[in-house]
# Entry
Amino acid sequence: MSEGDIAHDVFKEWFNVKQVFCLPRRGFKHPLAFLRMLSRVRRTRYDLVVDPNVGSGFARTLTRLSRGRYKLGFSDTPTKALTHAAPRELAGRHMALRPIHLLRWAFGAPASYRYPPLAVHLNEEERAEGRNVVAALAAAQRTKGENGLRIGIFGNATGAKRYTTDWWADFMATLCEAHPTASIIEVIPAHGQSMLREKWPGYYSSDIRRMAAVLAGLDLFITADCGVMHLGAAAGVTTIGLFRVTAMAVYAPYGGHNAGVNTGDCSGGETARHVLGMIATTLGYRRCG
# Structure
């Protein structure tokens, strides 16, 4: 069960996902649609209902209303909503790992075993389309070498997570000085406005799978803390997320060489130098030029 229709596209290539229930966004403002969806959910009997949320009364209510033989979730106090309650301390901080911790507790599996990466399961046709788009955008930068990195930048985020265009200008100047042969591709936000002053070729699609396919065709993706950051990680591209107001321990992209950077009050140039160090030591991409 998910909020909004985007889950249909996210789980499109998951062969074992047979039905996706998408609750209307801001469901309480659309009570009839919301109640119709709940009615559909209630008509299905499940062997197992999993609620990996911590502290969400709404999610726990949905769990209670669902018809399941077993209901699994985190709780330190007895609750009729769950048949099996795991201690909340087992949830861990990172949100993406909580359902894994929960299921491993339930089945007695080792909690410290490696974690599966986020994945949208792009098929080969989608990946090929993404590679072609990235190649075309890179070719538009005729002064760049053929062997340079293909780096995607997403500069948008909500509220205090957003960096200014001046901050990004400072970041990009330092990045490009270190990697002058890199092909830069800006991933354009939904509002259609460049965050990098339109200095580099841009790409935007309202289709989440096309967006993921293009991200998968990059060598590196650098982004502010936002949903597109998680899409990059799920697409399989090495993703570096920039954080300054939210907790990296909860939201940072994980797996592979993915990482979060706490920018604090650092300037764009200072942050870029830190990212460059990560690129050199972790990814093996040394300073060019």
